[in-house]
Amino acid sequence: MNNIKLKSMLEEFLKEDLGDGDLSSESVFAESDQGSFYLLVKEDGVFCGRAVIETVFRLLNPAASAEVHVEDGDEVKEGQLIAKVSGSMRTLLQGERVVLNLIQRMSGIATSVKRAVRKVEGSGVRICDTRKTTPGLRMLEKYAVRAGGGFNHRMGLYDAVMLKDNHISFAGSIAAAVEKAKQHCGHTVKIEVEIESEEGLIEAVESGADIIMFDNCSPHQIREWLPRVPAGMITEASGGITEENLSDYASTGVGYISLGYLTHSVKSLDISARVLRQEVEC
């Protein structure tokens, strides 16, 4: 997690919600009114978002204090207290929705990843994400994948080459696309090629690609074609893989399985906030 980027992101999220001020809290509470903010989990899952809780309220008021009782990646149970934040009532309520929106989504992703990881236990395959993330939230969503026990695919278009059908079609062939990529990129950049046929697989292997992605291939096809991949070449399966058929894909012998649903259609973990007002001590 890049804490500098995190702070900048959270500042923008707070600006979006606060605008010129919190009319509700400023109408009801004086600046001196103090309280405590309790975060409770309402269903079993995996928690993620400790840094969000600790950072949001400090951004609003340096005097606010956060006690987070769990670590990212910890399994949590229904009814469990995960954090207590103390400070002015205005501060607590101004940060409440931003915190909940983010940690619920991050925890939902971590929970989904943990289920996927458990389904492939013993197979040696690694579960990873895709670029199908929410714009503006990629860093947090991919962090949540790691908290759940998964691995990150490329972070964006800038850190790895993935040659898809459009690249290959324009270049004229897989071999031509790979050669162009090799000429353009440095030796530290890996080149991945999506294949959908046995002929495409053979061409990608012969072209010297670093990673072969079996795209929208059935488990039967992958098992049949995998022996054509040289030892040491990374293999990945993606497309059409769900929680229901995940075990079948894991049994093929492929090295990685990338799952778009981990981030693009995840259900947020239900977490609630309860705020209690405290009388100011004289």
Write structural notes for this entry.
This protein is of the alpha/beta class and 282 residues long. Helix 8 links the parallel strand 8 (191-195) and strand 9 (211-215). It is built from 11 helices and 12 strands. The protein has 2 domains: 3-116 and 267-276, Quinolinate phosphoribosyl transferase, N-terminal domain (Aldehyde Oxidoreductase, domain 3); 121-265, TIM Barrel (Alpha-Beta Barrel), CATH 3.20.20. The protein is elongated and about 70 Å long. It has helices spanning 3-18, 23-28, 50-60, 89-119, 138-147, 165-171, 174-184, 198-207, 219-225, 246-250, 261-264; strands at 34-41, 45-46, 65-68, 75-76, 81-88, 126-128, 161-163, 191-195, 211-215, 234-238, 256-258, 271-278. The strands form 3 sheets. The protein has a 6-stranded parallel β-sheet with strand order 6-11-10-9-8-7. The protein has a 4-stranded antiparallel β-sheet with strand order 3-5-1-12, covered by helices on one side. A two-stranded antiparallel sheet has the order 2-4. Residues 22-107 form the Quinolinate phosphoribosyl transferase N-terminal domain.
Please summarize the sheet with the most strands. 6 strands, parallel
CATH class of the largest domain: Alpha Beta
From the 3D coordinates, which CATH architecture of the largest domain would you assign?
Alpha-Beta Barrel
Domain count, please report it: 2
Compute the number of strand runs: 12
Low-confidence stretches: none
Radius of gyration: 23 Å
The helicity comes to: 40-55%
Strand order in the sheet with the most strands = 6-11-10-9-8-7
* The CATH H-level homologous superfamily of the largest domain: Aldolase class I
Distance between the termini: 41 Å
Discrete helix count? 11
Secondary-structure element pattern, one letter each: HHEEHEEEHEHEHHEHEHEHEHE
| CATH fold type of the largest domain | TIM Barrel
Shape: elongated
